[in-house]
Amino acid sequence: MSASAPELVVLPSSLALIPTRLGLTLVSLALVAFLIPLLIRPRIRSSAGHPTPPGPFFRRWYLGQYNELVLDKWARRFGPLYSVWFGDQMFVVLSHPKVVQDLLVENGAIFSSRKNYYVKNEVILHDRAITANPYDQRWRDHRKMAMKYLSEKAVGGYSDAIESEVVTLLRSLYDESKHCADPMSPALSAVRYTLNNMLRVSFGTRTTSLDDPLLHRIQRLVMEFDDITSPTSNAIDFFPFLRLFPTKTHQRAATLNAEMNDQYGGMIAAMQAKLDAGLGAEIPDCAMKHLLEGAAQEGGWESEDVLMLAVAFAFGGVHSIAGILQWFIAFMATHPAVAAAAHAELDQVVGRDRLPNNEDEKDMPYIHAIIKEVQRIHSPFWVPTPHYSTQDFVYEGMFIPKDTVLLLNCWTIHHDETRYPDSYTFNPDRYLGDTLASSASSKLRDPMARDHWAFGAGRRICPGFAIAEREIWLAVSGLLWTYTFHQVPNEPISLAEYEGSSGRTPLPFKIQLKLRHPRAREVMEAHDPAHTI
Ligand code: HEM
């Protein structure tokens, strides 16, 4: 070896470099050949030659905080059905009501599964929660059980409890604002209202004050869940090799799973201990009691299934409704003419002696319209939990292969100028004459007649629809009956920005409250804020 080295040194320099250059070129070509498929979309066709829907040339792994705006930009460029690749996963984006109806509703047997997202499904939910399950028997069992407690009929049984929580909410705002003297943030009271309703349904319990540690812990867990489970945000979901490395997202997801187990597992164990001690009569009727008393065993459920149903209720039903209520307050403070028209309707239909109730809704089309408009203009989920296909399908000449993720592009649909003229303006009048409840509207055959798509579509449509509508109606009408809402000088409320990765809640803001009439104070003061079930 050492004898041949000098010979190399005497070679002309250009010749000596040839093997090196060739090697480098070959390595570069190999790298490019390896990298290009990772960067650009593949060309896929059906056996009959149909191409996949058009879409961006490059693959993605992250769309940023306002991911709906990127999806909207592409919808304008590529049309109502386009495809985009995230790492190894093809997404198709549905940006028109007819496409949503044709695929998710009419072909629900094919488009109702869920992708096995690594962070959300595997690490956090252990493949068990209703929202994450593929379209299989476990999902059917969970969904059936959830509907037992969330159906229209079941919700009728919670009306008194929800009405009582409304007064607690009104009182909490009153106390927090030092009897309307100080500006205050409505966020925590709104979260407590929705959490108490969910705890009532699942555990027959509630938090007792804004300082209750349970409120703060669940609030934190739900926010963390929303923050780390956006369907278009985690590279680790789309590039499986990243799972071999320790990442911050993975660590956060594992911690969240442990905390959920600790919190909800602890509550379930405490209930089980009470039942074992023969003290079941002390526990109000609720989903967890029913499951622990036998329903779970009959359905072949394991303890983790029970836990995950409770988690699904909290994670699905707390920030969604609390977000709507916060947006509603923000719009009332910034649109006093709308609030004044709602107050006039209340005075005419309900008067000032009592709070509005469920029966009043049909007689108050304007407040009904305000609620629909808030949900249209600020849906809590601009990118709702995606659906997933279980068979190859050709739609309008475009190929949607099995195992494709389908995104309902709520932002683009809710800003379609032909359906909602002047769509960026908050204008409840657009819904006057639409007397249907949103749950009834979602069943209309004509997708263009549907009020909005905030609750999703097809067989995975939100099972909390009925309770959400009750909670929102009673809270919104009660808030309007009690207060007028005002912006705080020099602290404008932003109606454009929001927290979280998908529209969830407004940025923190403060409002100044004013009581509308003395009877409102009497109603609140007669109510015990520590009211227990
Ligand atoms: C304003 C309130 C709410 C909104 C806007 C909302 C919205 C949604 C949306 C968009 C979906 C996905 C639907 C789809 O895949 O097409 C969903 C699913 C779900 N929601 Fe809601 N939701 C709300 C309240 C609730 C409540 C109160 C609960 C529970 C008590 C709940 C529990 C769930 C569950 C468990 C799923 C998963 C269903 C499945 O995969 O089969 N949601 N929700």
From TrEMBL:
Give a yes or no for keyword Ribosomal protein in this entry. no
* Similarity-based family: Belongs to the cytochrome P450 family.
Organism of origin: Mycena chlorophos
Q: Sorted alphabetically, which PANTHER family does this protein's record hold?
A: OXIDOREDUCTASE, PUTATIVE-RELATED, P450, PUTATIVE (EUROFUNG)-RELATED-RELATED
Query: InterPro entries, from UniProt?
Result: Cyt_P450 (IPR001128), Cyt_P450_CS (IPR017972), Cyt_P450_E_grp-I (IPR002401), Cyt_P450_sf (IPR036396), Cytochrome_P450_fung (IPR050364)
Listed A to Z, the keywords are:
Heme, Iron, Membrane, Metal-binding, Monooxygenase, Oxidoreductase, Transmembrane, Transmembrane helix
Name of this protein: Cytochrome P450
Record keyword Lipoprotein present: no
Required cofactor(s): heme
Q: In which pathway does it act?
A: Secondary metabolite biosynthesis
Q: Which residues cross the membrane?
A: 20-40, 306-329
Question: Which SUPFAM superfamilies does the entry link to?
Answer: Cytochrome P450
